[in-house]
Amino acid sequence: QLPVITSNTIVRCRSCRTYINPFVTFLDQRRWKCNLCYRVNDVPDEFMYNPVTRSYGEPHKRPEVQNSTVEFIASSDYMLRPPQPAVYLFALEVSHNAVEAGYLKYFCESLLENLDKLPGDARTRVGFLTFDSTVHFYNLQEGLSQPQMLVVSDIDDVFIPSHDSLMVNLKESKELVKELLTSLPTMFSQSRETHSALGPALQAAFKLMSPTGGRVTVFQTQLPTLGAGKLQSREDPNQRSSTKGVQHLGPATDFYKKLALDCSGQQIGVDLFLLSSQYADLASLACISKYSAGSLFYYPSFHYIHNPAQLEKFQRDLDRYLTRKIGFEAVMRIRCTKGLSIHTFHGNFFVRSTDLLSLANVNPDSAFAVQMSIEDSLADSSLACFQAALLYTSSKGKRRIRVHTLCLPVVSQLSDVYAGADVQAITCLLANMAIDRSISSTLSDARDALVNAVVDFVSAYKSSVSNLQQSGVVVPAAMRLFPLYILALLKQKALRTGTSTRLDERIYAMCEFKTQPLPQLMRMVHPDLYRLDNITDQGALHLNDTVVPQPHLLHLSAERLSRDGAFLMDCGNVFYLWISKCCNEMFVRDVLGCPNYASIPPNMNHIPELQNPLSERVRAFLDWLQDNRAFSSSIHIVKDDASAKATLFPHLVEDRSDVASSYQEFLQHIQQQMSK
């Protein structure tokens, strides 16, 4: 329920440009004091009228002073050019490798199904290009009897074969677009072309999109082997479980970063779907999305027949991706109270000036983190405020400003700081800092820094606040899971050592930490555990006509698993349903559709739709978990045997890394470090 405000004057501080918000002070009806720089400003006449109550003379009751999140419809002062239309270009790899993986058919089906749901208006434009060792464009000009393919084989100097017929109005050329999507999957089915000229295809996309800006969606299945931006394999499979350090976490070339910055300058965001079974140098490829404010999707070992779980995840992700909200040509600025300053940002963007983030595209599924420092004493202030303002063009071509304002108390007692600490935000910010450190320095350096963060924290608490003579690791209540979260971070694909980890999978995990929303990250670090075999309707939610049970969250410990239960572990991007040996046969029969425990197949990865109350309840709960997140999660049914536990539960079993094999050992390690 976002308050949307249309007003001729958007009231802002004359000095620091903060938007008026609930935390400003009205000195009288005609003057207000900024909560960030403390300047006194005049209240404009128009602001005296309240459009909600239709009354005059109460500026403090206006919606922008009553709500800490608002959206303004911006005037022409906030435009460098008329708002752009929604423009979508799809760049599809069609080499033999891509055809073999089989993604094209499912992409075309999904886009056909969602063509009318793409965000936009009557001006929406679309275009397609495909590539292998050459780049192919498609003329979709209204009036043609069928789409025309135009091939550019000079990949060292890519040019656009036609300027007005390749990006077309979706409404006018809809039939041709549908025809192209119907014929694309078979067009390349006999291809023997093994090369992939990704770089030249991206250069072509940049030229096509530069006049308007918009979104480029790239599908890639292998290492780019031809033309600009071609790459060689840098992974040594023998080093996957090394404890010495990990090489090649940074890009092999600056081609993709440079191109992304050019794209950002022309308001083009590039999203990358990587569906590969071999090493594809994601460390280099990810730069195209990272610096153009794009998104990254990765499906290791993708194959439409051999990997049905990945295929289902790809289809679900694609459906959401094509229909989710999108903003174009955006910039975001974060301001904070005098005395504080922001020095580092985490996420996908380009920092245009010291504090202005350039976001060619913006979507609801990406997150940003910021680090700030205290420059001057805050002794005279009782509050610290932060304001994030995002200026963007909606898919309907409206210029809008989304403003969030946060106000936090400044306290004089250190114990109040500890009591108010947000342990999850701290953990995820440290994870971002560790990932930066592992790229700029080394992975082991980053891991040491995480352990030191716990040591420093516990030591500081012990010396300054807790005067208890307790032995062991003493932490304040709000932070009691902090050492556990850090241990869990050290076991994540992004940061672990000593456990075999493919380089691309490590890089993708690092990218996830830098861009995903906090609840999603926390489920990956410290999964949610539920017991499902004794599920009841007590406390259930009633949504539409569905009853959604709400089983209790359990402590994440192997002690909570029993020999006669069925437990769901929600790890954010994957669900594990663990069935113990003596699990109730009714659960096995009604939910999994198997007569008994022994008959559960080894690689089961879906829950059948069975017509009985227990099946309906379990599926309703799983659907509810799935609906509340940005990325789809695959499900694996795990039987109770040692090998399955070891493969699927790194969160519950011992870890071979050097820091700790169990939580108790980790705490002992922290104590030893403190005594040093």
TrEMBL record:
Residues 10-47 form the Zinc finger Sec23/Sec24-type domain. Keywords: Cytoplasmic vesicle, Protein transport, Transport. It is found in: Cytoplasm, Cytosol; Cytoplasmic vesicle, COPII-coated vesicle membrane; Endoplasmic reticulum membrane. Residues 83-322 form the Sec23/Sec24 trunk domain. InterPro entries: ADF-H/Gelsolin-like_dom_sf (IPR029006), Beta-sandwich_Sec23_24 (IPR012990), Gelsolin-like_dom (IPR007123), Gelsolin-like_dom_sf (IPR036180), Sec23/24_helical_dom (IPR006900), Sec23/24_helical_dom_sf (IPR036175), Sec23/24_trunk_dom (IPR006896), SEC23_SEC24_subfamily (IPR050550). Belongs to the SEC23/SEC24 family. SEC24 subfamily. This is Protein transport protein Sec24B. It comes from Ilyodon furcidens. The gene is SEC24B.
